Amino acid sequence: MQVTIDSHSGFCAGVTGAIRRAENELQQTGQLYCLGDIVHNGQEVQRLEQLGLETIDYDDLRTIHNARVLLRAHGEPPSTYWIAQQNGNTIIDGTCPVVKRLQQRIAETYNAHKHDNPQPQIAIFGKRGHAEVIGLQGQTNNTAVIIEHLSDAEQLDYNRPIYLFSQTTKSLDEFNQLVEHIKGKISDLGFQNSYFKYYDTICRSVANRVEQLKAFAREQDMVLFVGGTKSSNAAVLFNHCKQANEHCFFITGQQDMTDELIAQCHAAERVGICGATSTPLWLMEQVRDKLKIER
Ligand code: SF4
Q1: What is the fold, at CATH topology level, of the domain defined by 98-167+169-198?
Q2: Cys-Cys with 274: which of 9, 39, 102, 291 at CB 3.0–4.6 Å?
Q3: Ligand 1 centroid vs 280 CA: distance in angstroms?
Q4: Active-site residue among 49, 54, 132, 154?
């Protein structure tokens, strides 16, 4: 059995940056609040909590005073900065630069057109309730239409201009399908005021990973995909992986490796281990080591 860890799997630059900021802060002070899970991976959160990181929610943020609060890579709406500052808290901004630029683009578009007549709609292709999407919607005073599935595009008023953006981790194919769907609606309906601008704001750190991951999966007899159950990126990448190799299994870490799964791996010649942009390398290494130990 040859076990290979995919060299392209693991944290993206945005998550790495936020974790570095947390580690630096914790080294200096030994205590730091983080608003929401720093990464959608329970085991990495646990590791940082052992160093002194404390995960808080929005209710906690309203009651904490004069503390240091880390904002994770997903970014936050303007209201979060305002609430934190009201209580004298210092923000350590771990927002990924790619997400930050997207927030700025949406805010600029919203501010430039909010008084136009007819009033344009900003649409965000993304997962409703996802932290990044909440941060993006906040740039429009929460007026943006969230499109999670193609059917949600029915909420759009095709007689008003539409500006479409995407959550950074969405699938490029699905975004392109949505664009064609909206174009088709506009041309079928022939409305006078229709104006459709769309911006492919999908992070290539994820989009490029799809092809790399599929190529990796195809080379293996069996694949163990390591990811967090709360990570939408893990769900998307796992699906691609599964399409490329039907012998692909989702696990959150070595604790999910049943005797049966280990036996199946041992019966294979080539076993690949890969993960999402929120999967730490150390977790994939643990899976590899367990396979080798339990030989
Ligand atoms: S996936 Fe891309 S945009 Fe999202 S945190 Fe990572 S680097 Fe930033």
Answers
A1: Cobalt-precorrin-4 Transmethylase; domain 1 (3.40.1010)
A2: 9
A3: 15
A4: 132
